[in-house]
Amino acid sequence: MSIVQPNLAGRWTVPGPAQMPWIIALAGFLVMYAPVYWTAAHGIWQSDENGHGPIILAVLVWLFWTKRHEIAEAPTRRAPFLGWPLFVVGLLLYVMGRAFNISSVEFASHLFVVGGGLLLLKGTPALRAAWFPVLYLVFLVPLPGSLVDAVTGPLKQWISDIVESILYTVGYPIARSGVILQIGQYQLLVADACSGLNSMFSLSALGTLFMYLMGRTSRLHNAIMLLAILPIAFVANIIRVITLVLVTYHLGDEAGQGFLHGAAGMVLMVAALVFFFALDSILKVALPHRSGEQAVGKS
């Protein structure tokens, strides 16, 4: 059976010799990573901490799709001396991750396999064309548990303290013991998913994508936006916890732990996007920008 694809006129043609390496590479990639995605979909991606994984994967597919023409039209300057070491490192990480069931190592292999593959198939021009999607693969990697545990504890303490101070100042009957908030007759534990490193990591992915799509040419503008990503993520987490506390206080424990608890995740994303748009608009007015600036991602 021959493989066919549509040409620009809408007719179906057999791929030429120049396209076969790409088809083989894509088939090999799917054979390698489809089981990884399947395992994650039935494992870590079902947790609150890593539930953003499927969204990141969908964004990556879209990003590479929008870059397909630039990659295909890039001059062919294969770089085997750099491509093969990267590709082999990616394969070793993949095998190690699969053998020992280490999700972080499995997903980290993406960067080396994809980067090395582009260098072998097309060279450095193709890698430059796809630099953002390749780097964005970092957000597909689950954070190591030891790092999450080390950072999440202090984050929860800070957020719990700030939430208590804000709500107490505006007149709510709230008190705090560690990461447990007492408001009225209700006790709420500030969980890892509400204020931990993983939620800040997913918001960092959102902020980075926002910067890329806006396509600002001012280096100062981009530097300020980049530095603001983590503070914005922190503030968005505070808004999320405040929302959950107020929902529980006014509507009861069932509302706080039920549907509205999941909806607080949307509050987190919306709050972060509002801050990103607001800061971007302020910087656009306050800083000089080059003419011809436009959003990225159109194909």
Please tell me about this protein's structure.
With 299 residues, the protein is mainly α. The chain folds into 2 domains: 5-142, no CATH class; 146-286, no CATH class. The protein has helices at residues 20-41, 53-66, 68-73, 80-100, 103-121, 124-129, 131-136, 145-169, 192-195, 197-214, 219-251, 253-257, 259-286; strands at residues 5-6, 12-13, 174-177, 180-183, 186-189. The strands form 2 sheets. A 3-stranded antiparallel β-sheet has the order 3-4-5. β3 (174-177) and β4 (180-183) form a beta hairpin. α4 packs antiparallel against α5 (103-121) and α11 (219-251) runs antiparallel to α13. The two termini are 31 Å apart.
Summarize the structure.
Helix content is 69%, strand content 5%. The chain is mainly α and 299 residues long.
What's the SSE blueprint?
Blueprint lengths: L4 E2 L5 E2 L6 H22 L11 H14 L1 H6 L6 H21 L2 H19 L2 H6 L1 H6 L8 H25 L4 E4 L2 E4 L2 E4 L2 H4 L1 H18 L4 H33 L1 H5 L1 H28 L13
Antiparallel strand pairs: 1-2, 3-4, 4-5
